[in-house]
């Protein structure tokens, strides 16, 4: 596992935030001339500790979606393929391990959790155009006929619903901070639609920061703020790498006035969230409880996701020793998932095969 792929922990991101807030990084003239990262690093050399933290931040932004170049050097490409092999041994393909998974599910109720971006829809430049295919929708619809199914996304719930358009599912938007289930399903506690919003008091703050930040980042071409209701996404997929540090600086300047918000990171996106102790893992536990499965031994929760934020859910499953996580990735990444799928098309195949093998489900959902 390379350092570049290592996930930056929440504690590290907070450290980085403190470091950045106390550090004059680079002049705006340098930033606008595209020399920002160089100048930024040069200034930091004076304070090695700060430099280390800030470099971790810059590395973290690059690691969110590193450029993968196939090496031309034989020894390097050999090392790359050895890395890949070793990773696949520890995190085999869920398709190749399908029979094993089916055996494990015998006598158990599968409960399905699906991330959206990068899992059900391919990653695209424009977040408003991250559509899922009709075939994928059909596969999810079939899965939901047989197993309780939830979409767990960083996006706001309404937006992810508009992409998925399946009323029979649970939806946990804003990284699980906005949960709602379908009305009148037999698995709902008390037969009610579940609605849980642990960060509702942050709504006005998130709106305010969204406005301020949208204005501020206008000087960073390609940057974009997405309002996800209980959290914000600052996209840098279309920002020149030379300006990433500038963007991070702009975000930090705004966040300095909002100590109740924290910063995390996804795939070419900085995510601003309330400092509530809630994440996709907590959302998974909440949903299992709502479904009446909190203390059930005969369930098999399966969580499929591609992002760092999905790791919280993978961890919960490991801790419960129940079910497993599947990471969607073509490349080796540090993960708590047990299995892998390479891309959304493989996720679709896996879901279709799961429906074909549904006979093994005990509770006949
Ligand atoms: O939890 P998720 O459903 O995976 O949501 C995480 C973020 O997904 C979206 O951004 C990502 O997908 C975009 C479209 O493919 C892509 O342009 C971007 O670079 C990715 O980070 C969404 O727009 C964000 O708000 C979510 O936080």
UniProtKB/TrEMBL annotation:
Superkingdom per UniProt: Eukaryota
Catalytic activity field: alpha,alpha-trehalose 6-phosphate + H2O = alpha,alpha-trehalose + phosphate
Transmembrane domains' residue ranges: none
GO-annotated biological processes: trehalose biosynthetic process
Protein name as it appears in the record: Trehalose 6-phosphate phosphatase
Cofactor section: a divalent metal cation
MF terms (GO), sorted A to Z: trehalose-phosphatase activity
Pfam families in UniProt: Trehalose_PPase
First-level EC class: hydrolase
Enzyme Commission no: 3.1.3.12
Pathways involved: Glycan biosynthesis; trehalose biosynthesis
InterPro entries: HAD-like_sf, HAD-SF_hydro_IIB, HAD_sf, OTSB-like, Trehalose_PPase
Function, in words: Removes the phosphate from trehalose 6-phosphate to produce free trehalose. Trehalose accumulation in plant may improve abiotic stress tolerance.
Keyword terms: Hydrolase, Stress response
Chain residue ranges for the region called Disordered: 58-85
Polar residues compositional bias, start-end: 62-78
Family named by the database record: Belongs to the trehalose phosphatase family.
């Amino acid at each position: 596992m390379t350092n570049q792929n290592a996930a930056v922990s929440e504690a590290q991101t907070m450290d980085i935030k403190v470091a950045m807030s106390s550090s004059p990084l680079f002049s705006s003239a340098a930033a606008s001339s595209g020399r920002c990262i160089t100048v930024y690093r040069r200034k930091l050399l004076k304070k090695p500790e700060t430099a280390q933290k800030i470099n971790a931040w810059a590395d973290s932004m690059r690691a969110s979606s590193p450029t993968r170049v196939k090496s031309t050097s034989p020894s390097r490409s050999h090392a790359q393929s050895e890395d890949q092999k070793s990773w696949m041994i520890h995190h085999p393909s869920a398709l190749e391990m399908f029979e094993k998974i089916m055996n494990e599910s015998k006598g158990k109720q599968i409960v399905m959790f699906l991330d959206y971006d990068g899992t059900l829809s391919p990653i695209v430049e424009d977040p408003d155009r991250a559509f899922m295919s009709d075939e994928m929708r059909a596969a999810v619809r079939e899965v939901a006929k047989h197993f309780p199914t939830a979409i767990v996304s960083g996006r706001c719930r309404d937006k992810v619903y508009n992409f998925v358009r399946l009323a029979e599912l649970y939806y946990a938007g804003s990284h699980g901070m906005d949960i709602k289930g379908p009305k009148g399903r037999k698995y709902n506690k008390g037969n009610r639609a579940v609605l849980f919003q642990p960060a509702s008091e942050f709504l006005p703050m998130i709106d305010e920061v969204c406005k301020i930040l949208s204005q501020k980042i206008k000087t960073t071409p390609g940057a974009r703020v997405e309002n996800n209701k209980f959290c914000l996404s600052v996209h840098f997929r279309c920002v020149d790498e030379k300006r990433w540090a500038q963007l991070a600086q702009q975000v930090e300047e705004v966040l300095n006035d909002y100590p109740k918000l924290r910063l995390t990171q996804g795939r070419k996106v900085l995510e601003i969230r309330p400092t509530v102790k809630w994440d996709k893992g907590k959302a998974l536990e909440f949903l299992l409880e709502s479904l009446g499965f909190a203390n059930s031994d005969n369930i098999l929760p399966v969580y499929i996701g591609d992002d760092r934020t999905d790791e919280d859910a993978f961890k919960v499953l490991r801790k419960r020793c129940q079910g497993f996580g599947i990471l969607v990735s073509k490349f080796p990444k540090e993960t708590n998932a047990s299995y892998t799928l390479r891309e959304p098309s493989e996720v679709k195949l896996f879901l279709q095969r799961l429906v074909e093998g549904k006979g093994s489900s005990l509770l006949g959902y």
